[in-house]
Amino acid sequence: MAKLWVVIKREYLERVRSKWFIISTVFGPLFFVAITIVPGYLTMQGMKDSQVSDLRILDATGADLGSRVADRLKKMRDDRLSKMLGDDAAIVPPTVVQRVAPTQLADAESTATRLVMQKVTQGYLVLDSLTLTKQKARYAGRNASSLAEMEMVQGAVREALLANKLQAEGVPPSRIDSITRVRVDLATEKIDERGRGGSGLVSAIFGFIIAFLLYMMIMLYGQNVLRGVLEEKMTRVAEVVMSSVKPDILLAGKVIGVGAVGLTQQLVWFASAALMAAYGTQMMNAMGKPGMPPISLPPISPLLMVCLVLFFLFGYVFYSSLFAAVGAMVGSQEEAQQAAQPVIMLLVSSIILVQPIMLNPNGKLAVVMSILPFTSPVIMPLRMSAVQVPTAELAASLILVALACWAAIWVSARIYRVGLLMTGKRPSLKELVKWIRYA
């Protein structure tokens, strides 16, 4: 036990005292704040240059639908810019409406295409008889791949068609605009067996952040174990250490020591997040950014906190054991990158599934992936942050991932004993089975 503690202490202190650990621990929260705030700031700045109204409308409907679309585009863009930029909102360039006969529409489209190619306008919108009868319109332009701008154009056409139908039904023109420009601000609140649980959107964002952090920590520190084992093997340090310490103790000390480093960093990050939530508004006001809404974290129960720690520990032990086995059976960085691919793919599969599971956290895919041992360390905390997970599913997930950890440690320890002193080419699958059987 004393030798195990010596190995754990060495692995922990060696990494905690490094400059990179201090830098990543201190600036990690700042980095996550930056990737959260900077994209929103850049989006608002980009709205100043948006040219969604700098387009030409080819109106072949004969019902003056183009003017309605142009009017709604201008109002929608004015509202969006005023909401995001306030007094800094730019002046909206006028939208050109060209009324053409159906027989002249093809020639008008050719002319409009040339204007787009010559960068005179951003694009053009075609409204014809199909727009009135089947609600179909066509847009072509340089910004056709901009989803936000195309959604704005589509919304303007939809509101214009609705206004046109209301006018045909005899609704007074003074009331048409108020009817078609209804906006709904939907606030969501989560309710489970324990009662109200705060904002649903905040819970979803919190769950995604938790899943992403767990994935990154398991990946980074698991590969850290791989590099440490490989470095000791390549420099022959392992041969000296193993003369006084058993391979199993060395492996356990390395895994526990590096895991303690990751847990320390996570605790610092969670404390930073709590401080940001508590004092973020005051900090922004002091920096001259008043009006920022208070930052609030969803309620975190003791059970959720305990489960977050358990899933991180189980996930880390499972993957770091496999990474340690990979490091012991290869002899170079190039071989390590190839041999670690299956382990990395197992872990990557969990983060790939985050988005579809967030859309339906109680679906079959979410339930299955939160119970499977190689994805549950990331998926189950995501589900627990979003919805109330049944106790049976939570217990099954913990039991299975614990059993998987035991199996991974058992297999990795046998590969580690033999592979740490082996040199030459990477063993085949048949040779690995022999190592596990006879170690």
Topology summary:
Elements lengths: L1 H15 L2 H30 L6 E5 L5 H21 L10 E4 L5 H13 L5 E5 L1 H6 L3 E4 L5 H22 L4 H8 L8 E4 L2 E5 H35 L2 H5 L5 H40 L15 H28 L3 H7 L1 H12 L1 H6 L4 H8 L4 H11 L4 H29 L9 H10 L1
Helix pairs in contact: 1-10, 2-10, 3-6, 6-7, 8-10, 8-11, 8-13, 8-16, 10-11, 11-16, 11-17, 15-16, 17-18
Question: Can you walk me through this structure?
Answer:
This protein has 439 residues and is an alpha/beta fold. It folds into two domains: 2-41 and 199-438, no CATH class; 49-180, no CATH class. The protein is 70% helix and 6% strand. The protein contains 18 helices and six strands. The protein has helices at 2-16, 19-48, 65-85, 105-117, 129-134, 147-168, 173-180, 200-234, 237-241, 247-286, 302-329, 333-339, 341-352, 354-359, 364-371, 376-386, 391-419, 429-438, and strands at residues 55-59, 96-99, 123-127, 138-141, 189-192, 195-199. It has a four-stranded mixed sheet, sandwiched between helices. Strands 5-6 form a two-stranded antiparallel sheet. β1 (55-59), α3 (65-85) and β2 form a beta-alpha-beta unit. α15 packs across α16 and α17 packs across α18 (429-438). The longest helix is centred in the middle third of the chain and has 40 residues, at 247-286. The radius of gyration is 30 Å and the shape is elongated. The chain starts with a helix and ends with a helix. The relative contact order is 0.09. The mean pLDDT is 76.
